[in-house]
Amino acid sequence: MRVNLDVLLILDALDKYGSFAAAAGSLYKTPAALSYMVQKLEHELDILILDRTGHRAKFTDTGKMVLEQGRALLNAAKTLEKNAIQMSSGWEKELNIALDSSFPFTLLLPIINDFYQYAPQTRLQFSQQTLAGAWEALTQDNADIIIGAINEPPASAAYAYREMGRIENIFVVAPGHPLAGETEPLSNGLITRHRGIVVSDSARHSPRLNINLLEEQQRVVVDSFASKIPLLLAGTGCGFLPRHLARPYLEAGTLVEKQVESWRRYDHVFLAWRTSSNGLANRWWRERLLSDPTIAHAWD
Hints:
InterPro entries: LysR_HTH_N (IPR000847), LysR_subst-bd (IPR005119), WH-like_DNA-bd_sf (IPR036388), WH_DNA-bd_sf (IPR036390). This is Putative transcriptional regulator LysR family. Residues 3-60 form the HTH lysR-type domain. Belongs to the LysR transcriptional regulatory family. With 300 residues, the chain is an alpha/beta fold. It has three domains: 5-83, Winged helix-like DNA-binding domain superfamily/Winged helix DNA-binding domain (Arc Repressor Mutant, subunit A); 92-165 and 268-296, 3-Layer(aba) Sandwich (D-Maltodextrin-Binding Protein, domain 2); 167-266, D-Maltodextrin-Binding Protein, domain 2, CATH 3.40.190.290. It has helices spanning 5-17, 20-27, 31-45, 61-89, 109-118, 133-139, 188-191, 225-233, 243-252, 280-291, 293-296, and strands at residues 50-51, 58-59, 94-100, 123-129, 145-150, 159-173, 196-199, 219-222, 239-242, 256-258, 266-274. Strands 3, 4, 5, 6, 9, 10 and 11 form a seven-stranded mixed beta sheet that branches. It is globular, with a radius of gyration of 22 Å. The termini are far apart. The model has no long low-confidence stretch (mean pLDDT 90).
């Protein structure tokens, strides 16, 4: 077989990072080594995977097909490795948990400590996602469990999920912001005259979500609520926050809640996992998260 997993990993990295140099850094190889592997596959199959006529190489239609089906093979290989390890020991070697940016990571600290009393050999890897990014992490096999994912779950028997609560979205500004003194409810037209602070969607391959976003509004785009909040506090712009994240600033008077004319008030949040993932660590985390009263009130 002339197609091997190494070259598929290279194509995946090229698509994710956009250049041979960045992809090489992520794979701890040289750009020349990556280029050679891709050209070797093109020669052996007599196909063109990359169009190199421009400033930066781009995937041809054939290359896009190889990339898409190659990712399916990579995911299958990951699943094979995980299943083999689980069958041997019962406890997974690694558990990947993706969190929506709205979930307070500190709530997991006692759970992490308790888990390592049972499975010190399992490596926990956490990542932060936004909007559609959590579901994509699960469906693209980059996460075993996702916590706090918003929007509708995928309609597939390959995934299981439980609703954990709901987020209340509120519009906030700093006390010195021009909108702080405006009569409520604020109209969409009035809001568009002021710069918005928005969190980008971390999804790369799935349709992106635009929640409470006005297309006509100028904006500053950040990658998390942790980056958004300081900009709101500084009066740089206006925007929506989950109530549970805004609460300490509302109580301190450093942010002001304003009623608006129209908005998406609630987002339901989910815990989800792949139905094929049934290792001891995965089950331990699911059961603990679903039974922990602190987690149940995380979005209150």
